[in-house]
Fold this protein.
Amino acid sequence: MFDPVAYAPAYLRVSEAIRTRILRRELREGEVLPTETELARQFEVNRSTVREALRKLESAGLLGRRRGGKRLVVTRPTREAVGGGLSQAFALHRARVIDVWEALQAVQPGIASAAAERRSAAALAKLSGCASRFAARAGEREAAVADVADFFDALAEAGANPVFHLLNEPLLRLLKPSLAVIIDRVPQARARIEEAQAAIVAAVQARDAKRAAEWMARHVRDFGRGYEVAGIDLATEVGEPTAGAPAVS
């Protein structure tokens, strides 16, 4: 009924032991790890085993090196690394454009509400700056897409919830190609985005969580109408070209 339990290689056991200490905050961000020689002595393994374990933890974003430094220190995975991994996973699980849109509808109003309730003066200034930048420059498509992503990102940051902030990264990566098509093909897209951003900023400034959520829900619904007008097939899988969408990183 049961297969034999696999024997884990030593480097995996070393890696897991260090990873556990990091996740338990027993090894804190910025803390310098002992040398490979010292770790090999403590774990009673070869240096090559330690080196392989450390390489695995570096790949996971849990260890890194300071600029110009040789010693490994404890780090946090960057939002970009987390977002890249999740967006690839969504693509491999054959998520569609409509799936991303539905996720945005479910998540973004809550983020806007949290931002209105918790924003700091600095976070509000950053959010307002993102909206002003989008409104002020008629920029090319790539600049406009980046401005929209920056606005969503600043809103999540204002919500002071790290889960919201991390979750936004893969969703925005997947939104960008179709958003570029909408901005290209729907004449009123820029004006409607500008209107929504201004209303959301005003609600966040007034700490009106309900109105911020309502405007964000309306803003995301507008994307749905934009998909239709731009001729984007909502059944398109996110890893595939989106009805002539350009490559947007």
In short: Confidence is low (pLDDT under 50) at residues 243-249. The first helix runs from residue 10 to 23.
